[in-house]
Amino acid sequence: MAADGQCSLPASWRPVTLTHVEYPAGDLSGHVLAYLSLSPVFVIVGFVTLIIFKRELHTVVPGGWEAQSEASRLPRGPTDRTSSRQISFLGGLALNEGVNWLIKHVIQEPRPCGGPHTAVGTKYGMPSSHSQFMWFFSIYSFLFLYLRMHQTNNARFLDLLWRHVLSLGLLTVAFLVSYSRVYLLYHTWGQVLYGGIAGGLMAVAWFVFTQEVLTPLFPRIAAWPVSEFFLIRDTSLIPNVLWFEYTVTRAEARNRQRKLGTKLQ
Q1: How far is CA 154 from CA 6, 70, 143, 161, in A?
Q2: Read out DSSP for 207-226?
Q3: Which stretch of 4-8, 71-75, 136-140 has the lowest confidence by average pLDDT?
Q4: In this structure, what is the dihedral angle of CA atoms 168, 93, 209, 135, given to the nearest 10 degrees?
Q5: Whole-prediction pTM value?
Q6: Radius of gyration from C-alpha coordinates of the chain
């Protein structure tokens, strides 16, 4: 540790506003809601992690919850593609944040109660960026689960149940994050309401754009030399990514084990 005489403090200190949330002292509900309001940060960290380790063009959720036929459970060739797309989804979230920033600086509506919180990204509160982010994430995921992941007659009960539970959970978290921003006096009800509407509309627009414009381009993008260099892949045609990766990995491991056993004989 530096000695007292060696300390040279700047004139003022600023917190990292991205993760800085204040709540009333001694308020357990406020404490829990403060952590809930950090959900957008957790989502971004999760997406970055998925992109680093999966390198897929568009991922919403693992493909393990999609209904499928027995034939689709068999391993396919290494050139097949699955129903997940990370980079596109993250791009939609980034665009959604940009639209939120633009609207805030056009409307310039202040935060409630004279802005009791000093550590905020911007002094404007209309619309709530947390609300817009979470409702974009939830509505887009909801559309993907029920429109992109087509149900079939032989869909397993647990697959359908998990889809419903996941959708309900996403919508519940979006509502709680919106409520937390009002409870903690970061936004008014109107600001979180319009944030949710903006996020939902952006989610629908980006979902349609992704399905109609981007998805047909994914195979071509995945074939680019730069995509091959960074191992970026398109898995939009494989109905169950989790099952596909499991079966292919298991088959390859058994094949290598047989070859190793043959060499040792």
Answers
A1: 72, 9, 21, 14
A2: HHHIIIIIGGGHHHHHTSHH
A3: 71-75
A4: 30
A5: 0.73
A6: 23
